[in-house]
Amino acid sequence: MRRIWKWVGLASVAGVVAGGVLVARDQRRRKAYTPEEIRARLHQRVAEGGRAGDDGDPHDG
Known about the structure:
Strand content: under 5%
Mean pLDDT: 85
Distance between the termini: 56 Å
Low-confidence stretches: none
Number of helices: 2
Largest sheet: none
Helix content: over 70%
Structural class: mainly alpha
Radius of gyration: 22 Å
Order of helices and strands: HH
Number of strands: 0
Shape: elongated
């Protein structure tokens, strides 16, 4: 029975480590953008959102 808990513990540690790797990779990818690139992408997304047929009334839900 103790052997099972040992493997469960090792699997959980491996899962936490893998999750940390994914978070670190995502943060590195986000930090790779310059502020100007982020601003340009946000402006592009806002412009695309305005063209989607939205009449501009936020209370129209």
